[in-house]
Amino acid sequence: MRSSLPLVAVLLLAGFVLSFTASEYTLRLLNMAVIASVAVVGLNFAFGYAGLISLGHAAFVGLGAYTLAILTTQAGWSPWLAAIPAILGTGLVAAALGYPLLRLKGHYLALATLGLNVSFSIVAANWIEVTGGTNGIARIPGLSILGHDLKDERSFLWFGLAVLAVLSVLALAIHGSRIGRAMMAVRDDETAAAMTGINVTGVSVSAFALSAIYAAVAGCLFATHVHFVSPDDFSYAHSITHLAMLIVGGEATVAGAIIGATLLTFLPEWFRIFGDGYLAFFGLMMLAILVFLPTGIMGLLRRWRRAPRPGTAPHGAARS
Amino acid sequence: MSALQATGITKRFGGLLALSEVDLTVDPGEFVALIGPNGAGKSTLLNVLTGLSAPTTGRIALDGRDITRLSTHDRIRAGLGRTFQHGRLFERLSVIENVMVGAANRKGRSEAELRSTAFAQLRRMGLERFADQPISALTYGNRRMVELTRVLACEPRVLLLDEPAAGLNTGEVEDLMARLRAIRAQDKIAIVLIEHNMGMVMRLAERVVVLNFGVKIAEGTPAEVQADPAVLSAYLGEGAAHARH
Lengths: 320, 245
Prior knowledge:
heterodimer, A: 320 residues, B: Rossmann fold, globular
């Protein structure tokens, strides 16, 4: 249907341009925003397209990050090599968990995935020999491309933006394909989807696994950027933030996922003047968005774009 | 060989016997109407045939192949199609995308082929001007026609229609009947029609099957069924059959 490719291109380009002018502090935040964007574009497969409420997305980010951290620091793998099992392994774990888990719907699925996230945190904090417990894993090596270390914030941002660009284009391609339509059909009406020849379980599990793969990529970026992982980085609170990012961005679009992820990465910093009261402002803002902008920022943009031409009814349809 | 053959279908919900030893045979290209008072088990039979609920006992074969244990989507891929009583569409996809989901059942079609197949189906149903519209822009009647178009895009050999005329106005019912006749002539698919609109049933169906309280009480041509005392008493109550004779 409506493609958000132009908007995604503008957002990524804006990030690239900012990378030349921004302060070190803003660059770091931009990197965090890019990493969150990768995770949230992934969550969009499960929640936005297939309608699966997942409150365990951070667990898959963590699984990717920890796998890379363990393989690099304990087995001495290069981070590039370690990223492969980290990403594919997380996808397989999600698929294996998805089969039993996705029999649940709505609130039940939300609770089960939340439980999954809590379990992940407990294992990460207590399996000390492997995960280092609450001390986490430090000295994770960074990435380097053709001998150039991605040590500084700027070059990491360029790499992050490139990864986000590739993953966004892939997500948009899936959105416009029969697989994407099948996911959205399952979201809108499972019974009618099955009656149209769609394997509902297969499509749901695929969407869940795909979202976990994106989460694992975000986890690998996180681990190689911060060089340190601990259980706190992947608590269920982060899963709720991911979901909030997607809802704020809105309308199950890739551009919305990026806008929401970026906005909610920067907002806590902007609200820092309120000190501990920031959470209250944050909560009120979320409430306001849910009440007044149920389709998120993307819905708002769409309304603005339509507003100048109130007389043009959707008629005579331009086929694309 | 029959296109669809259901034998000895029994469906029990706890203490309620919704279907009892129902047999239904549909020949290739045949037009069968399934009628009966409310609660007779017509929709339950469609649910069992399409795999939405498992029969307590009984066997279902499609083109001679046993599909009793297949999942719903596998039955659809095997050649069964069904519409719902109130029309169920994918609300957040456009009209043509709804139909494209159906067209995607045939593997190996490119995105452009899916779109052109779906558009051809819409044109055949006179819906091409709605192709890029959202579902919310459709009238009730057109929603039901889009649902029919979507199931036709799955290219079924046996099509089960659950009260397709319910809620349609007289003009829309005439249009629906003309389209069903044309579909049958062109695609040579067998149709099983559940319908309360008796005029429609009598004009379209070659054979009528009557259910009452989960039991098949009559079967025959429209004229035979209309004259059947058991049918009259089921619809009009005891005594109606006697009064006529």
